[in-house]
């Protein structure tokens, strides 16, 4: 997932200890075959969401400019992975760990990236989408662990493949929850970084999450409200939407320049006017929602 959308020689051992353990059956299945027209709407909304979420390379430029440093404490603990036994929690946290994996990769924290890769692979196996997140993908990630650009590209491609695999197998709702989890985690990470490194550019990225939120809400609304997992996530997204009501995002031309190989965002549009009160409210709400997803 693209979001604000990457330990030592013991890394492999820690990965097994943190992400290992026996498989447990999912407690819900979340399988509702979509009609052809609904599937088309969902595919379009998903595409819009991905296009409106800043890429990890954009995020890298913003974090570099803000002077932010890697902080593993803001990420979901890899030891939590075996706690997710319900399919809905597995889907949400596949998205969460994807955002965490991108964040660790942005900072070239390759050893920790592999821990999050192991967690994502395990959840994919529990959700029966291991074909899209298979040993070959993990091998590619391992071989490119010192190449941030390649690593981020593989992560993005892999999650697209997971999304496509779920849709092909009429499990679109699993994909929707995965995307929602990734969006929430990305926003949470951005908000946490802003606490220590508050810059106009980072506020802009938080404000711009209003755009994919519109499509995410529309996507989740295509599923039955009788599904408790979907209904709960819909309520969470509606809460976030209400906080974005008065956030204005000016239109204008944007540019992307390179700074030592890192994309930096610029342009002629004025920055979004995200007030202190709006930022505090968004940070508080997304922190509460995210805690519900990972616990």
Number of helices: 12
**First-to-last CA distance:** 21 Å
SS elements, strand count: 2
Total domain modules: 1
Secondary-structure element pattern, one letter each: HHHHHHHHHHHEEH
The share of residues in extended strands comes to: under 5%
Poorly predicted sequence stretches spanning 5 or more consecutive residues: 1-27, 29-33, 258-267
- Taking all Cα atoms into account, the compactness measure Rg is 18 Å
Mean pLDDT: 77
DSSP helix fraction? 55-70%
Lateral arrangement of strands in the main beta sheet: 1-2
Helix and strand composition category? mainly alpha
How would you describe this structure to a colleague?
Strands 1-2 form a two-stranded antiparallel ribbon. The chain contains 12 helices and 2 strands. The chain has one domain (33-294). With 295 residues, the protein is mostly helical. The longest helix has 25 residues, at 172-196.
Descriptive key words:
single chain, 295 residues
Topology:
Layout: H1 11-19, H2 36-52, H3 56-66, H4 87-106, H5 110-126, H6 135-143, H7 148-168, H8 172-196, H9 200-207, H10 210-220, H11 228-244, E1 254-259, E2 262-267, H12 276-294
Antiparallel strand pairs: 1-2
Précis, in short:
This protein has 295 residues and is mainly α.
């Amino acid at each position: 997932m693209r979001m604000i959308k990457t330990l030592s020689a013991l890394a492999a051992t820690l990965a097994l200890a943190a992400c290992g353990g026996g498989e447990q059956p999912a407690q819900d299945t979340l399988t509702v075959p979509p009609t052809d027209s609904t599937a088309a709407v969902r595919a379009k909304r998903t595409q819009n969401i991905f296009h409106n979420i800043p890429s990890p390379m954009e995020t890298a430029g913003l974090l570099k400019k803000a002077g932010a440093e890697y902080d593993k404490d803001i990420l979901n603990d890899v030891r939590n992975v075996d706690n997710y036994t319900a399919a809905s929690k597995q889907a949400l946290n596949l998205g969460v760990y994807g955002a965490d994996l991108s964040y660790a990769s942005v900072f070239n924290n390759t050893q920790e990236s592999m821990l999050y890769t192991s967690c994502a692979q395990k959840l994919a196996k529990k959700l029966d989408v291991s074909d899209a997140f298979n040993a070959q993908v993990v091998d590619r990630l391992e071989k490119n662990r010192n190449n941030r650009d390649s690593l981020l590209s593989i992560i993005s491609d892999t999650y697209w493949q997971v999304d496509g695999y779920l849709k092909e197998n009429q499990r679109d709702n699993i994909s929707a929850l995965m995307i929602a989890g990734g969006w929430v985690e990305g926003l949470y990470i951005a908000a946490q970084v802003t606490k220590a490194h508050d810059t106009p550019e980072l506020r802009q990225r938080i404000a711009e999450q209003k755009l994919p939120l519109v499509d995410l809400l529309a996507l989740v609304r295509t599923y039955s409200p009788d599904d408790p997992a979907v209904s709960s996530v819909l309520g969470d997204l509606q809460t976030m939407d209400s906080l974005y009501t008065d956030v204005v995002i000016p239109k204008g031309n944007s540019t992307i320049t390179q700074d030592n190989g890192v994309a930096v965002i610029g342009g002629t549009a004025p920055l979004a006017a995200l007030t202190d009160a709006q930022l505090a409210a968004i940070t508080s709400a997304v922190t509460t929602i995210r805690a519900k997803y990972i616990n």
